[in-house]
Amino acid sequence: MESTAPETLGPGHSGGLAALPSGKLGPKPLERDPATPRRRFVAAAGGVVAAAVASSVVDAPYVIAQPKIQWRMSTAYPASLEVLHGTALQLAKIVDELSAGRFRIEVFPGGQMMPPFECFDATSRGSIESFMSSAHYWFAKEPALAWFTTVPFGMNPEGMAAWCHQGDGLKLWEEAYAAFNLIPRPGPCIAPQMAGWFRKKIGAVGDYRGLKMRIASGLSGRVIAKVGATTVLTPAAEIYAALERGVIDAAEWIGPDDDMKLGLHSAARYYYYPGWQDTGTMLGFGFNKKAYEALAVDLRRILDHAAAAVEVYALSDYHTKNAIALERLRTQFRGKVEILPIPVPVLRNLKEIATEVVKEESEKTPMARKVHASFMKFRALVGPWDHVAEGAYHQLVAG
Length: 399
Description:
Blueprint lengths: L16 E3 L5 E3 L8 H29 L4 E7 L8 H15 L4 E6 L10 H7 L4 E4 L23 H9 L3 H10 L3 E8 L6 E3 L13 E3 L3 H9 L3 E3 L3 H9 L5 E2 L4 H6 L8 E4 L8 E7 H6 L2 H35 L6 E4 L2 H19 L3 H32 L2
Parallel strand pairs: 3-4, 3-5, 8-9, 8-10, 11-13
Antiparallel strand pairs: 1-2, 5-12, 6-12, 7-10, 7-11
């Protein structure tokens, strides 16, 4: 609304008299300076800018004072395994982006900062803040840890993810890790896997007798030990040399993509499936409890959701890359590599022994008993749906 208050004469205006309608002389009407509205706008805008500047100056100390968190993470995998080690790098990238640089995680491959299998203890005691690996590498510390990665003839990736996020899996994992000053978060499922590379054919369960085999899962290792094999836990980067030189006779790692990156197809001829020992292998992140709880709430949530995101990314990445690598094995290495199913009678024998082993291990600690009971209950819940959905898909639709 225009003001009715008299205006003072601005520059360029002169006083004087003029004839009024009554015929008398009076003061001349004021002439508006055309620049006046512009000056008003400029003045008002200047006030807004000044207020904004003042506000930013007031807020600046808050922005500058935002803490910068720097963590270190060691994985159990070499940098050449772009999905395994790469998943940790992807987690760090997501955390950095979503926190606008407030929270950064420097990721080291296994063997660079420490030997691959020392990352668990280093994070537990606080030497580093985090690690990425498979929980079953440390089942000797607590048998229950094996279930959070996989058990022989266990659930598939969907089942493992559902148990963790929709069942009691993650809650129990947190309870088990608390004894080691750790906070767990599920990582990607990298299964079903292959059963492994063998230097000789497996036609009967007795053919395992006398074999020295690299196998990751402690429970699966117990299974093949019961049929006469000797188990060896070898870090990824050392498997090829051991297999090629005959130090071991067989080795399972993951699937075609990573196995070829390690060169295993050049060290043994017979490549067996299905991966009964790793039907739904879930990797995991471990965070030092004190470091995790010291994070601001929003940074904790960013870290949690970043872990959930890479579950999906890595699962889809593996699915694609393994398909490509399997085709390479069938075409480029035809005549050098044979891709074979484990005979059904062998699988039946292994499953019978695995059932005994899993039950035996579950009785070793109260934690293992609790985790095993939860796992089996959830498997019984989702198993019938898997059979109807996935089973029918492969037998009747895709097959």
